[in-house]
């Protein structure tokens, strides 16, 4: 028994086809105007999960990049101020050597003492260096001045600085300490080569004309200079590692962005072709529909 096809059924079929074509055109135009092939979760339920994952990883990667930049700035600043401390120490060594050669009258030793006193003040300024409002040589108590001369009974060689690490997270489970304590650079109170203790002895010896006593401190000066040089070398090694981490994070950002683009972004060339094809199909369906539907009784009455 054959199925009887009525004009009503033909109208309904035509309406369904036209509606489907319009819906497809709307979807293509939506992708063309937004530039994305996923505009709502229903467009690609699996793709949207990857998209969200890529966005989360990109956000985390961006924060790690900011942390790495901050770590690099801290280490660069440390390298600069430790280099300045090394230059000051070199000048102190030259003055001590000059003053302890046994040929200087007292007034010359007093002049040398004046300069060494100024250099000691310069070292204190360096030891209190601040970056972005933080004292870089006072560990985790970076909000407090480590060598505060306004404190009653202040004695630079007796200062104990905080030893806590200042660390930056530069990757998943990767943290990098960037700071050095003041005691690591300038010496602990018990160290014989504590730079402030050595300077006090040199100044005292020159003030009393004891040139051999000042000369005896040259060894301590040299050991402290070597320790400052080692500290600078350690900073340089950390700078190299941070730069490697920055390169790695930059590469990861490129990879994640590429994968996100492949998941979310529309293929314009393909969309333009599909859109034109769909437009032609829609026009054809309208044309064919107008011819297929038989005239109604009303048409005859006209």
Quick structural gist:
Keywords: Bacterial flagellum, Cell projection, Cilium, Flagellum. The chain is mainly α and 302 residues long.
Spans of at least 5 consecutive residues with low confidence = none
Q: What number is the mean pLDDT?
A: 91
Could you name the CATH class of the domain at 70-260? Answer: Mainly Alpha
The percent range for helix content is 55-70%
- CATH fourth-tier homologous superfamily of the domain at 70-260: f41 fragment of flagellin, N-terminal domain
Distance between the termini: 36 Å
What is Rg?
A: 39 Å
Strand order in the largest sheet:
1-2
- How much strand? under 5%
Structure description:
With 302 residues, the chain is mainly α. It has a domain at 70-260: f41 fragment of flagellin, N-terminal domain (Up-down Bundle), CATH 1.20.1330.10. It has 9 helices and 4 strands. It has helices at residues 7-34, 45-99, 106-127, 182-186, 195-207, 211-215, 218-264, 268-292, 297-301; strands spanning 130-131, 134-135, 167-171, 174-177. The strands form 2 sheets. It has a two-stranded antiparallel sheet with strand order 1-2. Helix 2 (45-99) packs antiparallel against helix 3, helix 2 packs antiparallel against helix 7 and helix 3 (106-127) packs antiparallel against helix 5 (195-207). The relative contact order is 0.15.
